[in-house]
Design a protein that fits this description.
The protein has one domain. It is 34% helix and 32% strand. The relative contact order is 0.19. It is of the alpha+beta class. The chain has 3 helices and 6 strands. Helix 1 crosses helix 2 (27-40). It has a 6-stranded mixed β-sheet with strand order 5-4-3-2-1-6, with helices on both faces. A hairpin with a 3-residue loop joins strand 2 (58-70) and strand 3 (74-79).
Length: 137
């Protein structure tokens, strides 16, 4: 499956879930519903995958958790907020850089229309240009 097909399936699933369930549920509910929907389409989905990292001699066993990893290529960050803030895009971009993934989707289920809550984030950094943080996958 091409990368655009994977991201298209994710967006399609998110829109369908939002139409059926509406806004106002917890992020964990949307995450679980979307993960299940994508698995039913034959995509590989990992939920709440911990990512270890170290910096300056300090190690974190679970530095952060990724909401969803789809087809081992796309990070999905799920939100359920009235509106997204610029920091949410920066958060996803940081996750992409730290894991060397190229594409992520920021999905906000909290708005009146799902279409307004979809952001595609692309990591254009060369891995050698990334920060000094080390990631242990």
């Amino acid at each position: 499956m091409e990368l655009d097909d994977v991201t298209g399936a994710i967006v399609d699933g998110a829109i369908r879930i939002h139409r059926e369930m509406g806004p106002g549920l917890r992020e964990s509910v949307y995450e679980r519903l979307l993960g299940s929907s994508l698995q039913q389409r034959g995509l590989r989905v990992e939920r709440q995958r911990p990512i270890a990292l170290s910096h300056g001699g300090i190690s974190f066993k679970e530095g952060f958790r990724l909401d969803l990893i789809v087809d081992k290529r796309v990070i999905v960050e799920v939100k359920s907020l009235e509106r997204l803030a610029p920091v949410h895009t920066k958060q996803l971009l940081t996750y992409l850089r730290l894991t060397n993934f190229r594409v992520g989707l920021l999905l906000n289920f909290g708005g009146a229309r799902m279409k307004e809550g979809i952001r595609r984030v692309v990591n254009d950094l060369d891995p050698s240009d990334s920060s000094r943080l080390r990631i242990n996958r």
